[in-house]
Amino acid sequence: MTTTATQAGLAVELTDLTRVYGSVRALDGFTLHLTPGELVALLGPSGCGKTTALRILAGLDQPTSGRVEVGGRDLTRVPANKRDMGMVFQAYSLFPHLTALENVAFGLRMRRVGSGERRRRAGEALELVGLSPLAGRYAGEMSGGQKQRVALARALAIRPSVLLLDEPLSALDARVRAQLREEIRRIQLEVGTTAVFVTHDQEEALAVADEVGVMSAGSLEQLAAPQEVYDRPATPFVAEFVGLTSRVPAVAQDGLARTAGGEVPLLPGSAEHGNVELLVRPEAVVVSGDESGTGAPGRVVHTSFLGALARITLATDAGELLAQLPAVAATGLGPGTTVTWRLTTAPALAVPVRS
Fold first, then answer.
1. Which of 38, 77, 116, 332 is deepest in the core (most CB within 10 A)?
2. Is the domain of 223 the same as that of 339?
3. Could you tell me the pLDDT band of residue 39, with boundaries at 50, 70 and 90?
């Protein structure tokens, strides 16, 4: 591949960042470490501080306190144009009077790269995102997905040590989003740059990242590999924000939660004694249409078919439960069907009973 695809990323250290706007603490002791070439997705609801953290890393905002280091260099007070970072925004931010090639070359021109080298590197970046045939097109002649590829190529053309992506896919339809997130991951791995990807879409975060940082109220609730965040949530917020959960009444003792649907091992951080609520994933609920089967009784309220999978809402003595199973296994389990249910032995988080 081209020289664009050989740029090594740098380590990133954000240490104890706070950002206060009047009475609002947008960041509250936020700390994050990225190893060279790693992609971390910051995931959380609106207002949790994820975009503020990204803007401080980019140099577009200043922390109230804390430290920003990239490659061992303190950049906390270094202006954005001196930080060697590429940024991709939700809104593309392309110049309508410039062609795709000219848009990609714009950052190089600002860095006083010569015209010949500028065209070569812009062409390489367009090739990397698969848009070489559209080099002469203007923004108004391209689809949303094509525009976002141009924006990505523009960020890559400067050969950044750190690539920052702020909700880059939220303006696109579902099919294009899924396709482009895979392309972004492929390119990031090929180029080798360190990357921070901000999103409120949990599926997006889990699909592209080496690690997912789940944020709430300006700080990290958990930073871990996608599967660990999903299977072993560290806090109730993570358990309920990432994926779907049902609350199952249980009694906790000796590292186990005893429920109507069986015993379940407790995850670290669980409430360990007495009456609790177990936060259970849909795939941990096993449903049988055989009323004589082992388990507790329930009744199907609703069945949603999701292609190869089906999601079933059950009314039970333990409250409403969500179950997920292969669609073929859900055949005949329509509303009103009497079933039995039990829980798998997948570890789950137990929380105090809500008052």
1. 38
2. no
3. very high
CA dist., res. 235 & res. 199, Å (int): 20
What Cα–Cα distance (Å) separates residue 178 from each residue in 46, 75, 171, 183, 204?
A: 21, 34, 12, 9, 8
- What pLDDT score was predicted for residue 92? 75
**Helix or strand holding residue 148 (H, E):** helix 144-157
Cα gap 237→132, rounded to integer Å: 44
- Same domain as 107, residue 81: yes
Predicted TM-score (pTM) of this structure: 0.88
Residue 182 shares a structural domain with residue 248: no
Tell me the per-residue pLDDT of 8-25, one tens digit each, with 9 for 90 and over.
689 999 999 999 999 999
Domain with 305 in it: 244-352
3-state DSSP call for residue 66?
A: strand
Torsion of CA 182, 184, 189, 193, to 10 degrees: -160
The amino acid at residue 131 is L
In order, the DSSP letters of 154-205 are HHHHT--SEEEEESTTTTS-HHHHHHHHHHHHHHHHHH--EEEEEES-HHHH
> Would the pLDDT of 86 be above 70?
yes
| Final residue of a structural domain among 236, 268, 299 | 236
